[in-house]
Write a structure and sequence with these properties.
- This is Redox-sensing transcriptional repressor Rex.
- The protein has helices at about 10-25, 35-40, 45-55, 70-80, 95-100, 105, 140-145, 155-165, 195-205, 210; strands spanning about 30-35, 60, 65, 85-90, 110-115, 125, 130-135, 150, 175, 190.
- By secondary structure, the protein is an alpha/beta fold.
- The longest helix has 19 residues, at about 10-25.
- The structure holds 1,4-dihydronicotinamide adenine dinucleotide (NAI).
Length: about 210
């Protein structure tokens, strides 16, 4: 695979779904699959699958289909999931605590190290074995513990200020739950999460059954 080849974001955004289903196939000890069979379980058309996976080259063979293990490992590499990341959570309220309580994240290589908050009633408490620290300690903690990613779960009006602080650190990525478009230093990547986007699509599909059956 040519790792420098520019892959469209539309393809990249489909890869986690391939990754998830391929993992399930491996767990069921399925080691070989055609694009047609993959299409039936994943919901993308066979031609879409061939087109997507051709981007990376070498995964499928005419008449054989895909080697599930190779494909899974290939996508793991493309998404850089074989390397672990060190994570902090900023804002230890409902969302921050929910993420800290989600063991799947730890098992997927996103190693949550600590939470940060301003609320003195939360500072010093633990969520599972993770300590909640004073937000004032954030910068020093990031540098000392080689933190790569911040999950930001603070109220909307506080979040840009936090992004300004993060911009002064060596942090590389922000997973932003707060509904605000952040301005950050150019060496930080921001990925916004809006659960409601998916919910609103559900609402649309509920009322347009034909579309939902596609
Ligand atoms: P929450 O009020 O339970 O928690 C927010 C926490 O941030 C509190 O513990 C508060 O003390 C702390 N905080 C406030 N200012 C801070 C600062 N300067 N530094 C560090 N910590 C600070 O709120 P909740 O429900 O956890 O929501 C958090 C954010 O996530 C909100 O912006 C909300 O709109 C957003 N949200 C996003 C969703 C999504 O799908 N993206 C879904 C639900 C919530």
């Amino acid at each position: 695979m040519d790792s420098k080849k520019k892959i469209s974001m539309a393809v990249i955004r489909r890869l986690p779904k391939y990754h998830r289903y391929l993992k399930e196939l491996l767990e069921k000890e399925v080691y070989r699959i055609s694009s047609k069979e993959l299409s039936e379980i994943i919901g993308f058309t066979a031609s879409q699958i061939r087109q997507d996976l051709n981007n990376f080259g070498g995964f499928g063979q005419q008449g054989y289909g895909y080697n599930v293990d190779e494909l899974y490992e290939g996508i793991t590499k493309i998404l850089y999931l074989s390397q672990p990341y060190n994570v902090v959570i900023i804002g230890a309220g409902n969302m921050g605590q929910a993420l800290a309580n989600y063991p799947w994240l730890q098992n997927s290589g996103f190693r949550i190290r600590a939470l940060f908050d301003v609320n003195p009633r939360l500072i010093g408490l633990k969520i599972r074995d993770l300590e909640i620290y004073d937000i004032e300690e954030l910068e020093a903690y990031i540098e000392k513990n080689d933190i790569n990613i911040a999950f930001v779960c603070t109220p909307k009006e506080k979040t840009q200020k936090i992004a300004n602080v993060l911009s002064k650190t060596s942090i590389q990525g922000i997973w932003n739950f707060s509904p605000v478009d952040l301005k950050v230093n150019s060496n930080i990547v921001v990925e916004n999460v809006h659960l409601s986007d998916s919910l609103f699509v559900l609402s649309y599909l509920l009322n347009n059954r034909e579309e939902s059956e596609e």
